[in-house]
Amino acid sequence: MGESGCGKTSIALSLLGLLPKDHACVSGSISFRGQEMLTMNDQALQRIRGAEISMVCQEPGISLSPVLRVGEQVAEVFRAHRDWGWKQCRAEAETMLTRVGLPGTARIFSAYPHQLSGGQLHRVVLAQALACQPALLVADEPTASLDASSQADFLVLLQELKEQFRISILLVSHTPEIQASLADRLMVMKDGRIVEEGSFEQLYRSARHPYTRAMLRRSVFAETKESAERETVSFREKI
């Protein structure tokens, strides 16, 4: 968590080697399951992207081609990482679209991105990201472009899928309420550095850094992680 421009998205993109090499220099170490990712070549990174680590961006249009049907775009993830025929890839894509809560799967599968709502597109991108059941999902401001109703539903879905797939989520957000409802451990960034980390309740009650205190006290109902979760559920019920 941190203000805009502090480096949250840069860290997320660095994990998958997606920062343009002619504009950014990534140094240090990125270790994933005992593998040093900074020294990997592009071929090795391609095997990890989408299969072991996947990413959801705040704008689904970045991840989806406007000229391909969304179901086929989910099926392509399976074809890239599984030794399956196209028929099985399509069938698994339909299953994934159902698991992320998209009704009328046949209609959704054959739709183009412009034919779906913003909330539906976010679920399609989530289906892409979880298709191969990765160990880590990087979610970069995944609800930033959604209205309040769609945002609440998406957060509940994300929590449910986290438990079903038993995956870790690196959630990038500057909103304390969202972090309170999902995060087990919170890292606060300022000016490109992590200045503090701990559980949400721990940092809310006894943050050492003044920047952390300012960000968390800005929340109107996140007195503890538990109370924030109750408020999120209550808010959703009202909708």
Key terms for this structure?
239 residues, alpha/beta, three-stranded parallel beta sheet, two-stranded antiparallel sheet, 11 helices, globular
Commentary on this structure:
The chain is α/β, with parallel strands linked by helices. Helix content is 47%, strand content 12%. Strand 4, helix 7 and strand 5 form a beta-alpha-beta unit. Helix 6 runs parallel beside helix 7 and helix 8 crosses helix 11. It is globular and about 55 Å long. The protein starts with 7 loop residues before the first helix and ends with a helix. About 3% of the residues have low confidence.
Oligomer: single chain
Please state the average pLDDT score. Answer: 86
Percentage of residues in DSSP E strands: 5-15%
Query: Based on DSSP secondary structure assignment, what is the total number of beta strands?
Result: 7
- Shape estimate: globular
Lateral arrangement of strands in the main beta sheet: 3-4-5
Summarize the structure.
About 3% of the residues have low confidence. The protein has eleven helices and seven strands.
Layout of SSEs?
Blueprint: H1 8-15, E1 31-32, E2 35-36, H2 42-48, E3 53-56, H3 70-81, H4 86-99, H5 105-109, H6 118-130, E4 136-140, H7 148-165, E5 168-172, H8 176-182, E6 186-190, E7 193-198, H9 200-206, H10 210-217, H11 225-238
Parallel strand pairs: 3-4, 4-5
Antiparallel strand pairs: 1-2, 6-7
Helix pairs in contact: 3-4, 3-6, 4-6, 6-7, 8-11
